[in-house]
Amino acid sequence: MKTNRCKSTGVVPVYSVFLIAVIGLLAISPCRIQAQWNNNTYENILLSGLPTADIQSAPTSDGKTWIAFYHQNGGNYDMRAQLIDANGYKLLGPDGMLVGNHTSGSATYVFNVCVDASNNFIIGYQDERTGTMQAVAYKISEAGTQLWGANGVVLGGGLAPYPAALSNGEVVVAWSGDLGNTLNLQKITPTGSLAWATPVTITVGSSTTTRGQVIANSSGKFSVIYQKGGIYTTLYAQMFENSGTAVFPPLQICNQTTAGYRYYSVVAEADTTYCGYYSSSGMRFNSFLQRINPSGTIPWGMNGSNFNTAVASNDNYQEETSINLTPGSDFVWSVCNFSNPNQTVYGVYIQKFRKTTGARQFTDQAKVVYAISAGRDQRCGDLALVDDNPMFLSYNSTEKIFATRLDATGNFAWPGNRIEVSSTTAGGSTPKMRYGFTPDGPNRCAATWTEDRGTGYMGYAQGVSVGGLIGLKVETANGVPAIINTSGGTLQMIATVFPATSVQDVTWSIVPATGMASVTTTGLVTAISNGNVYAKATAVQDPTVSDSMLITISGQSAQPPTVITLPATDVSSYTASLNGNVNANASGTEVFFDWGLTSAYGNTLNASPQVVTGTTSTPVSAMLSGLTSNTTYHFRARGSNVAGTATGADLTFTTAAGVGMSENKKLKADVYPVPNNGRLNVVLSNMTSKMVTLEVYNNLGKKIFSITDFNATENEVTGIDLRPVPPGIYTLIVRSISERTTFNFVITDGN
């Protein structure tokens, strides 16, 4: 992930959105749980109903996406912003919010955006509010509040402001000054004040210093990648302290020719910065990955590590490049467009570099994703990483847009290799432009772009799941109403996974609201109780993609519970755990265990849990204590609700013989009075050992009282006070080294 999540635009658009795909069950409409994302890739989502000249986007940490765009408003270009949530809903109105409408001039210029740690949106652009071009910056909250005021912060004369949100909440902006050949830097406090009385300036020799790209490092530090020259440039790098003091002087990182009208791909991990770029050597183009150490050194040498070492004049050209890394990973990924030397046919290649050495992992020739061909496949937008594996956007000769995901070895991860994101075609004088694609969350990406579909250029977006799906739609078979109004009635549901080439298998489930139902693996819903439920389908190809439809149920009668007795467990000489499963069938059900020496039982024990709800089988249990060793007991589970009582089968268990002792038929324990109020007297007789332990258990098998190593005397009266305790049946257990006896008694009022 990029440290400061900034996006930029130049002649070649590189903007993007990456959105969380999990469809929350709380985000519901009256009849279905559904995201706003459009499953029809011929339509997509319209970002705004206003003419759009250029767009930029950046992700938030809470699963939303900020988008800034120029609105061509007559002879002016107004700046507007939109916020889209994880489900594709536009949160700032159908056309977004107005950021600024100062006089802009008759053309658009480069603008850039980023998001800070509080998910505020920072936009850097320029206007002519003073009659000449001024670099300005705005900060907007997710609620649509202008945090730096309606007029933003004026940085000074110049163009192409590039902001970066620092780790301490401040923002640093680089822009090309309107005087001399300098690149300016200014820091803005969180409240919108200029931190430095005058901008920090960067100048390399007498040539123009331009195109500054700021990226945050640790502890409020930041680095700047910039260019020296006019149209034809070379790349430099510098790191700065938070105060604006340079950590090292201008560092040349390449000696081949770069383009002064172009931004390159920059990422950082802590204080180490990486730059992916392509440059010209003679009459050809070569792609590189360069590493800049915080000490101001380039350990891989001038230019860095080649994407592909085939750089002879007749070898294929290596062109637009995008890089990304996952913090803590050993690698940096790079995706690059290739062409033949005549630049008439194109393809896409992938490379993986080791961070420490720059060593290429996919041989010196890189790995072909889409071969150079007349199909003219070309990557566009930023490179996203999903579990440290690449996912990116591309378009072909018809300008259809596709998404592709690769695995760790650079092989295709999805059935069919790629999916269509935009199915419309374009070209000629009205090509698709301003493509975007960037990571934001674990489950979904979205492409953004501008396109003229006959009414002028507008902005569009399309969600794509990391599993290669556009979406999923749940409907009733034959379009019948989503209603069940007969007792035990059924409703057949169907699910369609998009695109049509994806795996169509889904997993069905019921999400209860106020009613209950069941559903089969084929989507047949059976009503259980009145109310509303959601029939939910989850894609097998990508379980993060799902859709649900609300079903209204009426005409149902309550049903008794379904009860199953399960074998006893943890059976010892004197205790046993009773078990069962109970389905409440949508009516709250009280659960008990009946037990005794015969199938007539005679004793009842509350189960845990005592009350079961819902329509699924719930495990229940209870612990019996105070049993006689080497004895067979009968038991069964029993449940009762408003519709009646149901019992499980009669089962038995046999307690084990006493271990190290036997039930002493002579040892006798008398309790009086019976019943009692929790105060009782115990008299022991026929004793062979005077050192005994006395324990009392309730009817749940929980020990509530004990005296250990009690020195008892024959026929001596021992008083015990158990209060406060609830009424019920209690068991006294008396044991010594070789003896044991039990006595059951009743407490009627234990207060």
General description of the model:
- The structure is a single chain.
- The protein is an all-beta fold.
- Helix content is 0%, strand content 51%.
- The strands form 13 sheets. The chain has an 8-stranded antiparallel beta sheet with strand order 1-8-9-10-11-12-13-14, with no helix packed on it. Strands 2, 36, 38, 41 and 42 form a 5-stranded mixed beta sheet that branches.
- Strand 11 and strand 12 form a beta hairpin.
- The model is unreliable at 1-35 and 659-664 (pLDDT under 50).
Tell me, rounded to a whole number, the average pLDDT. Answer: 89
Decide which structural class fits the backbone: mainly beta
What distance lies between the first and last C-alpha atoms, to the nearest angstrom? 65 Å
Apparent shape: elongated
Proportion of β residues? Answer: over 45%
The residue fraction in helices comes out at under 10%
- Low-pLDDT runs of 5+ residues are 1-35, 659-664
Strand arrangement, major sheet: 1-8-9-10-11-12-13-14
List the total number of helices. 0
Strand count, sense and barrel status of the largest sheet are: 8 strands, antiparallel
How many whole angstroms does the radius of gyration measure?
Answer: 37 Å
Number of strands: 57
